[in-house]
Specification:
The chain has eight helices and four strands. By secondary structure, it is of the alpha+beta class. Strands 1-2-3-4 form a four-stranded antiparallel β-sheet. It is elongated.
Length: about 200
Protein backbone atom coordinates (compact mmCIF):
# COMPACT_ATOMS: atom_id res chain seq x y z
CA UNK A 1 0.00 0.00 0.00
CA UNK A 2 2.80 2.44 0.91
CA UNK A 3 4.71 1.43 -2.22
CA UNK A 4 1.72 2.31 -4.39
CA UNK A 5 1.37 5.74 -2.77
CA UNK A 6 5.10 6.24 -3.26
CA UNK A 7 4.65 5.63 -7.00
CA UNK A 8 1.67 7.98 -7.13
CA UNK A 9 3.81 10.73 -5.59
CA UNK A 10 5.99 10.85 -8.70
CA UNK A 11 5.31 12.34 -12.10
CA UNK A 12 4.17 9.59 -14.55
CA UNK A 13 6.81 10.73 -17.04
CA UNK A 14 9.50 10.36 -14.36
CA UNK A 15 8.19 6.89 -13.46
CA UNK A 16 8.44 5.86 -17.13
CA UNK A 17 12.01 7.19 -17.28
CA UNK A 18 13.00 5.34 -14.08
CA UNK A 19 11.32 2.12 -15.26
CA UNK A 20 13.17 2.25 -18.57
CA UNK A 21 16.55 2.93 -16.97
CA UNK A 22 16.18 0.33 -14.20
CA UNK A 23 15.11 -2.38 -16.66
CA UNK A 24 18.02 -1.50 -18.98
CA UNK A 25 20.43 -1.69 -16.05
CA UNK A 26 19.08 -5.09 -15.00
CA UNK A 27 20.07 -6.54 -18.39
CA UNK A 28 23.26 -4.49 -18.84
CA UNK A 29 26.54 -5.76 -17.42
CA UNK A 30 28.01 -3.28 -14.97
CA UNK A 31 31.30 -4.53 -13.58
CA UNK A 32 30.89 -5.26 -9.88
CA UNK A 33 27.30 -3.95 -9.69
CA UNK A 34 24.08 -5.96 -9.80
CA UNK A 35 20.75 -4.12 -9.65
CA UNK A 36 17.65 -5.65 -8.02
CA UNK A 37 14.22 -4.65 -9.33
CA UNK A 38 11.27 -4.22 -6.98
CA UNK A 39 8.29 -4.66 -9.34
CA UNK A 40 5.89 -3.36 -6.65
CA UNK A 41 7.79 -0.09 -6.34
CA UNK A 42 10.23 0.91 -9.05
CA UNK A 43 11.35 3.93 -7.00
CA UNK A 44 12.81 1.46 -4.46
CA UNK A 45 16.14 0.89 -6.17
CA UNK A 46 18.57 -1.56 -4.64
CA UNK A 47 21.86 -2.96 -5.89
CA UNK A 48 24.70 -5.19 -4.76
CA UNK A 49 28.14 -3.63 -5.18
CA UNK A 50 31.22 -5.84 -5.06
CA UNK A 51 34.04 -4.49 -2.90
CA UNK A 52 36.75 -3.36 -5.35
CA UNK A 53 40.04 -5.30 -5.44
CA UNK A 54 42.96 -3.59 -3.73
CA UNK A 55 40.71 -1.92 -1.12
CA UNK A 56 39.80 -2.95 2.46
CA UNK A 57 36.34 -3.81 1.05
CA UNK A 58 37.65 -6.41 -1.40
CA UNK A 59 35.71 -9.67 -1.31
CA UNK A 60 32.64 -8.07 0.25
CA UNK A 61 29.18 -7.66 -1.24
CA UNK A 62 27.48 -4.43 -0.19
CA UNK A 63 23.74 -3.81 -0.53
CA UNK A 64 22.93 -0.23 -1.53
CA UNK A 65 19.51 1.47 -1.58
CA UNK A 66 18.45 4.65 -3.41
CA UNK A 67 15.33 6.55 -2.35
CA UNK A 68 13.91 9.01 -4.85
CA UNK A 69 12.25 12.22 -3.62
CA UNK A 70 8.92 13.46 -5.00
CA UNK A 71 10.67 16.10 -7.12
CA UNK A 72 13.24 13.70 -8.61
CA UNK A 73 15.19 14.33 -10.87
CA UNK A 74 15.18 18.05 -9.89
CA UNK A 75 16.43 16.94 -6.46
CA UNK A 76 18.95 14.13 -5.98
CA UNK A 77 18.04 10.77 -4.45
CA UNK A 78 19.33 9.73 -1.03
CA UNK A 79 21.67 6.76 -1.02
CA UNK A 80 22.23 4.28 1.82
CA UNK A 81 24.43 1.28 2.50
CA UNK A 82 22.15 -1.43 3.87
CA UNK A 83 25.24 -3.51 4.66
CA UNK A 84 27.23 -2.24 7.66
CA UNK A 85 30.48 -0.64 6.53
CA UNK A 86 33.37 1.35 8.05
CA UNK A 87 33.88 4.27 5.64
CA UNK A 88 34.46 8.02 6.08
CA UNK A 89 31.54 8.97 3.82
CA UNK A 90 28.95 6.62 5.33
CA UNK A 91 27.01 7.59 8.47
CA UNK A 92 26.01 5.15 11.21
CA UNK A 93 22.52 4.87 9.64
CA UNK A 94 24.12 3.96 6.27
CA UNK A 95 23.53 7.34 4.59
CA UNK A 96 26.13 8.11 1.91
CA UNK A 97 27.69 11.55 1.54
CA UNK A 98 29.05 12.23 -1.93
CA UNK A 99 29.11 15.51 -3.90
CA UNK A 100 27.25 13.91 -6.82
CA UNK A 101 24.20 13.61 -4.55
CA UNK A 102 24.66 17.08 -3.06
CA UNK A 103 26.07 20.23 -4.70
CA UNK A 104 27.20 18.50 -7.94
CA UNK A 105 23.79 16.95 -8.69
CA UNK A 106 22.36 17.47 -12.18
CA UNK A 107 18.89 16.26 -13.26
CA UNK A 108 20.35 14.44 -16.28
CA UNK A 109 22.54 12.19 -14.10
CA UNK A 110 20.98 8.73 -14.07
CA UNK A 111 20.84 5.75 -11.72
CA UNK A 112 23.84 4.15 -13.46
CA UNK A 113 26.01 7.21 -12.78
CA UNK A 114 24.99 7.23 -9.09
CA UNK A 115 25.84 3.54 -8.59
CA UNK A 116 29.20 3.94 -10.35
CA UNK A 117 29.94 6.97 -8.15
CA UNK A 118 29.21 4.94 -4.99
CA UNK A 119 31.51 2.17 -6.21
CA UNK A 120 34.26 4.76 -6.86
CA UNK A 121 33.78 6.02 -3.30
CA UNK A 122 34.87 2.57 -2.06
CA UNK A 123 38.09 2.99 -4.05
CA UNK A 124 38.74 6.66 -3.24
CA UNK A 125 37.07 7.79 0.02
CA UNK A 126 36.81 11.53 0.70
CA UNK A 127 37.80 12.22 4.33
CA UNK A 128 37.25 15.96 3.80
CA UNK A 129 33.45 15.47 3.86
CA UNK A 130 33.32 12.68 6.44
CA UNK A 131 30.05 11.56 8.00
CA UNK A 132 32.02 9.03 10.05
CA UNK A 133 34.61 11.28 11.69
CA UNK A 134 36.53 8.41 13.26
CA UNK A 135 36.97 6.69 9.89
CA UNK A 136 37.96 9.99 8.25
CA UNK A 137 40.57 10.72 10.92
CA UNK A 138 42.03 7.21 10.80
CA UNK A 139 42.20 7.33 6.99
CA UNK A 140 44.23 10.57 7.12
CA UNK A 141 46.43 9.82 10.14
CA UNK A 142 46.67 6.03 10.57
CA UNK A 143 45.78 4.32 7.29
CA UNK A 144 46.76 0.84 8.52
CA UNK A 145 44.33 1.10 11.46
CA UNK A 146 41.59 2.38 9.14
CA UNK A 147 42.21 -0.46 6.69
CA UNK A 148 42.16 -3.05 9.46
CA UNK A 149 38.81 -1.79 10.83
CA UNK A 150 37.26 -1.62 7.35
CA UNK A 151 38.48 -5.16 6.55
CA UNK A 152 37.11 -6.49 9.84
CA UNK A 153 33.62 -5.08 9.23
CA UNK A 154 33.73 -6.33 5.65
CA UNK A 155 34.64 -9.79 6.93
CA UNK A 156 31.80 -9.78 9.49
CA UNK A 157 28.99 -8.13 7.51
CA UNK A 158 29.72 -8.28 3.78
CA UNK A 159 31.31 -11.66 3.11
CA UNK A 160 29.34 -14.39 1.33
CA UNK A 161 29.16 -16.35 4.61
CA UNK A 162 27.37 -13.37 6.22
CA UNK A 163 24.83 -13.01 3.41
CA UNK A 164 24.00 -16.72 3.65
CA UNK A 165 23.27 -16.50 7.36
CA UNK A 166 19.54 -17.06 6.91
CA UNK A 167 20.15 -20.20 4.85
CA UNK A 168 22.44 -21.49 7.58
CA UNK A 169 19.71 -21.03 10.17
CA UNK A 170 17.29 -23.03 8.03
CA UNK A 171 19.86 -25.83 7.86
CA UNK A 172 19.75 -26.29 11.64
CA UNK A 173 22.31 -23.56 12.34
CA UNK A 174 25.15 -25.92 11.43
CA UNK A 175 26.85 -23.41 9.14
CA UNK A 176 26.43 -20.52 11.59
CA UNK A 177 28.01 -22.68 14.32
CA UNK A 178 30.92 -23.35 11.99
CA UNK A 179 31.31 -19.62 11.32
CA UNK A 180 31.26 -18.97 15.08
CA UNK A 181 33.94 -21.60 15.71
CA UNK A 182 36.03 -20.25 12.81
CA UNK A 183 35.77 -16.78 14.33
CA UNK A 184 36.99 -18.13 17.70
CA UNK A 185 39.99 -19.70 15.95
CA UNK A 186 40.71 -16.39 14.18
CA UNK A 187 40.44 -14.51 17.50
CA UNK A 188 42.89 -16.92 19.13
CA UNK A 189 45.30 -16.44 16.22
CA UNK A 190 45.02 -12.66 16.62
CA UNK A 191 45.70 -12.96 20.37
CA UNK A 192 48.82 -15.04 19.67
CA UNK A 193 50.05 -12.47 17.14
CA UNK A 194 49.52 -9.61 19.62
CA UNK A 195 51.40 -11.53 22.36
CA UNK A 196 54.21 -12.30 19.91
CA UNK A 197 54.47 -8.62 18.95
CA UNK A 198 54.63 -7.64 22.65
CA UNK A 199 57.42 -10.16 23.25
CA UNK A 200 59.41 -8.80 20.28
CA UNK A 201 58.92 -5.20 21.46
CA UNK A 202 60.14 -6.09 24.97
CA UNK A 203 63.32 -7.59 23.48
CA UNK A 204 64.06 -4.37 21.54
Amino acid sequence: MSSMSNLENHNPQVIRQITKEVKTLSTETLEGIKININEADLTDIQAIIDGPAGTPYSGGKFRVKLTLPKDFPSSPPKAYFMTKIFHPNVASNGEICVNTLKKDWKPDLGIKHILLTIKCLLIVPNPESALNEEAGKLLLEHYDDYSQRAKLLTEIHARASSSKKDDAEEDGCSSSKKIASDKKIQDKKKEKLIKEKKRILKRL
